[in-house]
Automatic annotation (TrEMBL):
InterPro entries: Cyt_trans-like, PPAT, Rossmann-like_a/b/a_fold
UniProt keywords, alphabetically: ATP-binding, Coenzyme A biosynthesis, Cytoplasm, Magnesium, Nucleotide-binding, Nucleotidyltransferase, Transferase
Localisation: Cytoplasm
Site (Transition state stabilizer): 17
Catalytic activity: (R)-4'-phosphopantetheine + ATP + H(+) = 3'-dephospho-CoA + diphosphate
Binding site for substrate: 9, 41, 73, 87
Protein name (record): Phosphopantetheine adenylyltransferase
Name of the coding gene: coaD
Amino acid sequence: MTIAVFPGSFDPLTNGHLDLITRASHLFDQLIVAVGQNTAKKGVFTPAERVAFIEQSIPDLPNVTVQIETGLTVAFMQQCHATVLIRGLRNSVDFEYEQGIAGMNHHLDAHIETVCLMADPQYQFVSSSLLREVAKFGGDLTTLVPVPVAQALAQRLGSDRP
Ligand code: ADP
């Protein structure tokens, strides 16, 4: 049985993330979405809120679970007996970034294989950080994130509008 982990900030979950979760769930026996905190990024939603958004959005994927991850992803994966680390690639900037992380993770545990899935072209421009910016100015995000996420973004960030 192959267990895969998809780690990320998911602050918040986007339809691009959701597409990757769905596709990875078809490739592996079990998929654990690991909600962590990228120390370089300031969070808008708490880890528990981010987990809730993901759980609400994946009811039809029985082999997917969601957990909060603190610490090193490789340590989390060892605990879960996971051997595949899923990441997404939207463009060459993502590639450079993911190449470095994959190299470090391989150095830390050579049994872990990073598998990068190409972003669906319709979501290549979608990032949580850009969506947070658009939400601040009241832009319509309804086709880019699940409905509860769009509502929460508008509530949390819409009021920051200058
Ligand atoms: P992190 O802070 O760990 O990069 P993110 O939530 O920003 O967390 O991204 C998690 C993973 O999802 C990364 O591999 C990223 O490249 C990928 N990803 C982000 N947005 C998209 C998208 N629109 N389509 C496909 N993959 C994406």
